[in-house]
Design brief:
- By secondary structure, this protein is mainly beta.
- It folds into two domains: 93 residues, MurE/MurF, N-terminal domain (Udp-n-acetylmuramoylalanyl-d-glutamate--2,6- Diaminopimelate Ligase, Chain: A, domain 1, 3-Layer(aba) Sandwich), CATH 3.40.1390.10; 210 residues, UDP N-Acetylglucosamine Acyltransferase, domain 1, CATH 2.160.10.
- It contains four helices and 37 strands.
- The protein has an eleven-stranded mixed sheet. A ten-stranded mixed sheet has the order 7-9-12-15-18-23-26-29-32-35, with no helix packed on it.
- Helix 2 links the parallel strand 4 and strand 5.
Length: 324
């Protein structure tokens, strides 16, 4: 969860039910402290469950309440009261905005000021026209290039190099990190619900976490999480012009070539290698030690130790046989 956004809760369960415009005959008088995903929700939290794919997580959730459908409610444990709605994701957006109203919009950081006027003057080596926002921490032996903006709510470790023309916000950067030129990290993801009159923007209350010894190539865009965090595992290298969408988890020691796109909520294991111009659909699980050839289209889970290529991506030997 994002440690930088203020939680406006708790709210009574009756307030939440009213905001969702649903009927629930219940004697519960609980106060709901927070909204979280199935895995991370605790007692007195509310969560959401919208797909059978998450049945195992739903069955083990500690949440006291869950926004879900009639078809899915029986997969919840007894400790979790189902709140039945027609559209789980829209309803979840309404409740998330109630708890975190500041997480909907992502306007520029007006708190930013010239680094010469901050405590980092003399501590950080920097180029021209560098701006720093509020609630920023920068470790020792760091470099920041020309025209870069470290917006509010960023923690940068030691021995880091941030290139020119980059923007970073809502991000935890580990030690020994290289972020090259023209990157945008920590902005909200492509999360909204289409509507004929006005698209409904989904709050993004997660962060980006980049672990130690990573390199992020030029022109990379890494979106912060919507409900959970976007995580780049340690010693992972991203080439140029890569897009990592909200909630994506990338395991350690992974290498990703240029122009790869990874859609929201997909999870990549350790020691994964991905060739250039590959596309990975959302909500997938890519196992450890997987190799994906360049130009592939991944639309289903890939087990550990697999080598795949093509569209749709399949075992590389099968692909070669099919394309003789």
């Amino acid at each position: 969860m994002n440690p930088f956004f203020n939680n406006h809760g708790p709210f009574s369960i009756f307030e939440i039910i009213k905001s969702l415009k649903i009927n629930l005959q219940s004697t519960h008088k609980d106060e709901v402290k927070d909204i979280n995903d199935l895995l991370n929700a605790n007692v007195n939290d509310i969560t959401f469950f919208h797909s059978k794919k998450y049945k195992d997580l739903a069955n083990k959730t500690k949440a006291s309440y869950c926004i879900t459908t009639s078809a899915l409610k029986n997969d919840l444990p007894r400790n979790c009261v189902p709140l039945i709605v027609d559209n789980v994701l829209v309803s979840t957006s309404i409740v998330t905005e109630k708890f975190y109203p500041d997480a909907v919009n992502d306007n520029f950081d007006y708190t930013g000021q010239d680094i010469d006027k901050t405590k980092f003057k003399g501590k950080v080596k920097y180029g021209k026209n560098v701006l720093i926002g509020e609630n920023v921490s920068i470790g020792s032996n760091c470099l920041i290039g020309h025209n870069t903006i470290i917006e509010k709510n960023v923690i940068i470790g030691n021995n880091c190099s941030i290139g020119s023309n980059s923007i970073i916000r809502n991000t935890l950067v580990g030690n020994n990190i290289k972020i090259l030129d023209n990157c945008v990290i920590g902005k909200h993801g492509f999360g909204f619900f289409p509507n004929n009159t006005k698209n409904i923007r989904y709050p993004h209350i997660g962060i980006v976490q980049i672990n130690d010894n990573c390199e992020i190539g030029c022109g990379a865009t890494i979106d912060r999480g919507s409900m959970s965090n976007t995580i780049i595992g340690k010693n992972t290298f991203l080439d140029n012009q890569i897009h990592v969408a909200h909630n994506v988890k990338i395991g350690e020691n992974t290498i990703i070539a240029g122009q790869v796109g990874i859609a929201g909520s997909s999870v990549l294991g350790k020691n994964v290698k991905i060739g250039g111009q590959t596309g990975i659909s959302g909500h997938l699980k890519i196992g450890d030690n997987v190799e994906i050839a360049g130009g592939s289209g991944v639309i289903k889970d890939i087990p550990d130790n697999s080598k795949v290529m093509g569209y749709p991506a399949k075992n590389i030997r099968q692909f070669l046989r099919d394309n003789k």
